[in-house]
Amino acid sequence: MSLGPDSVTSVHPLGHGDDMHQQVLASFPLCQLTEEDLVQNPLFCRLLASLSQHVDHTGLSLPLRKDLEKAEQELRVQRLGWLRSESLLQLLREMAQEHCVRKHHSSTTADDDKFCETLEQCLLVAQCVRQLDPSSTVGQDQPQLLGLSAQHVLGLMPPEQDVRCMKRRLLVELEKRLKEKCWALLSYHQPDCENESEGLKSLKLSRLPETLENESKRAEGLREKHKESAALLQRQTHRYLSELLGCVQILQSVILDHRLKAQKELDVKKVEYLDAKCQIIIRKIRVEMLEIQLATYTPETIAAHRKIRDVLDGELSAARAEKQSADSVLSSFQILGQEFEALVEEYSRLRHEIDNKRWALQEFSQHSH
Asked: pLDDT tens digits for 274-307?
């Protein structure tokens, strides 16, 4: 797929909410992509959209996905066969162990002893044969262990008649134990069926594999949905954090601008506060100094200050009375109008000349002596 200059000019600009973005993000959930990345790279978005038609959400191509599904199917079949054989082997071992426990705690019949001895011997021989001849599982020849072969061990099998008797009884015992296991599994899955009839239990038991398979598929679907939701939540969280970071930066710039504008008013308020505080401190200092001065005064000093104050008060009263009489005389003179003002100016000039000549006469008299 080649993209030249002509194709670049023909690329249709994609919107922020285009369905192609959601398709690409859903097709590649394992990639750390955001919708913003797809908007900024439209060619890459188209490439991924085209690629999503040929690969699955894990990045595997469709043919490879089919091969993988086929291999997984074969693996399930092999695993199912292994589980069946292991389940039967576990049941057989449990039968042998339970017989040993009963034998030690109570008496057992000869048929039971014979059955369990034959079963244990067959199990032991089968296990040895499997260890000596693993070609059926490995697919290649292996060197013999201690020079033994499977034929040597098969010779230790119990008599054929005992084996036939054991197999006839074994089928009944296995059916009984498997039924008990199935009832226990059904009771665990559906506890409310304890008191139901055996026919109804058998019906529910026949549907149990299908029910378990449906529940498994539903759980797998929920698991896939959870993965998709987690990926979507991660993308939305990334977008939310980006938007939140942008909002924080804008808020910081607004706070800084507001702080610079309000700094002048804050400085003025601070200066006024400091000035008022200084005035209060100065007044307090003056009061303290006055209190100190008053504390140092003697009764004689206080009496002398009082006398001086009385003299000054008398002089102030006399000056006020003189000022009041002068104001009344001046008021009477102001009635005369402009002629009085001319006489006052002439009187002031003559008085000034008399004062000058008197000062000159005093100076002459001092120098003549």
From this structure: 888 888 888 888 887 777 776 766 677 777 767 7
CA angle in degrees (0–180, nearest 5) for 331-332-335: 90
Residue pair 239/34 in contact by the 8 Å Cβ criterion: yes
Q: How far is CA 220 from CA 177, 197, 211, 215, in A?
A: 32, 33, 14, 8
In the numeric block, which tokens belong to residue 104? Answer: 């030690």
Cβ count near 132 (within 10 Å): 19
SS3 at position 148: strand
Q: Which two tokens stand for residue 48?
A: 């991924």
Q: Write out pLDDT tens, residues 49-88.
A: 888 787 777 777 888 888 888 998 999 898 888 888 888 8
Burial class (CB in 10 A: 0-12, 13-18, 19+), 157: middle
